[in-house]
Design brief:
This is NAD(P)-dependent oxidoreductase. This protein has a single domain, classed as 3-Layer(aba) Sandwich (Rossmann fold). About 40% of the residues lie in helices and about 15% in strands. The strands form three sheets. The protein has a seven-stranded parallel sheet, sandwiched between helices. A two-stranded parallel ribbon has the order 6-11. A two-stranded parallel ribbon has the order 8-9. Strand 1, helix 1 and strand 2 form a beta-alpha-beta unit. The longest helix is centred in the middle third of the chain and has 19 residues.
Length: about 300
């Protein structure tokens, strides 16, 4: 991979993917919509990114017909589509509107990419729903949340457009991802910020440290000659609950609300060589250090 475009490259996972790409000597174009509510955080991330001749930040909005963005996308070997209208606030009544907007983005991206380039899309293990036992990529999706259902419909859109435009694709289904810059509305971040009213993440099936995920996204795209759907997992049980307990979560938050399930790491290990390397204890410590450092700078 010589050049990558990261759409939503100043978001939580997008930022770490940009960092990992740069460490692998890949030229990176980060496209991010300016959000006045996030100006300070975006400035901090750009500062951490540092001066790098291989990194370029472009303010762009996929809702606008911007030929500049289309041209940048057309030059990339890999496009990481981390920008999405899907959020914690996704409600059943907004499902059709959200899918319509996100599908339009996927169509725009696919039409702009050169043939045989790769699009990498982050999905969620919520597409499996609440099923018991060992979950593999062959487990039939049965989403029960609007977020899971929307993501599954967008997976189908990615596959359809990739096939129509002779693109390769990787769809990577993720559990809860934590670490520096985690969204403030996620459970671990709420606990670290000592919020009064703490609520549980949508999925407690597993927890992965963000740099492990970023390495997985980058490594997978550099070695895959074909397309596929994978989930990334620690391969261990109860990681989310261990992390929440380490952060002093209340007992009512630690009650399991899902069927006893686990994610099989086999397919991603064998075909993508993905293995999580950061223990939950170390990952929690690193996120805590990051939060403390930011609080001191404010």
């Amino acid at each position: 991979m010589r050049k990558a475009v990261v759409l939503g490259g100043l978001g939580f996972l997008g930022y770490h993917i940009c960092q990992e790409l740069l460490e692998n000597s890949v030229e990176v174009v980060c496209i991010e919509k300016q959000d006045p509510r996030e100006n300070l955080m975006m400035d901090e991330k750009l500062l951490y990114m540092g001066r790098n001749a291989s990194f370029e930040w472009i303010q762009g909005d996929l809702d606008h017909e911007d030929e500049r963005l289309f041209a940048l996308i057309s030059e990339a070997d890999t496009v990481y589509h981390m920008a999405s209208p899907v959020s914690l606030e996704s409600k059943w009544q907004l499902k059709n509107q959200t899918v319509q907007q996100a599908t339009k983005w996927i169509q725009t991206i696919s039409q702009s990419m050169k043939k045989e380039a790769m699009v990498v899309f982050p999905s969620t293990v919520e597409v499996y729903g609440d099923v018991p036992g060992l979950i593999t990529e062959e487990t039939p999706p049965q989403p029960t949340s609007p977020y899971g259902l929307i993501k599954y419909e967008l997976e189908q859109s990615i596959i359809k457009e990739a096939n129509a435009h002779q693109l390769r694709y990787l769809i990577l289904r993720l559990p809860t991802v934590y670490g520096p810059w985690q969204r403030a509305d996620m459970t671990f971040a709420q606990l670290l910020n000592h919020e009064d009213d703490i609520y549980k993440d949508r999925s407690t099936l597993d927890a992965l440290y963000v740099t492990d995920v970023a390495k997985g996204f980058v490594h997978a795209a550099t070695q895959r000659d074909q397309s596929g759907v994978y989930h990334l997992t620690s391969g261990k049980r109860d990681q989310w609950f261990i992390g929440a307990r380490l952060l002093g979560a209340r007992e009512d938050l630690l009650k399991e609300s899902q069927t006893r399930s686990s994610l099989s790491p086999k397919k991603a290990e064998e075909q993508l060589q993905f293995r999580a390397s950061v223990p939950i204890e170390e990952g929690i410590r690193l996120q805590e250090v990051h939060v403390q450092r930011r609080n001191r700078l404010r």
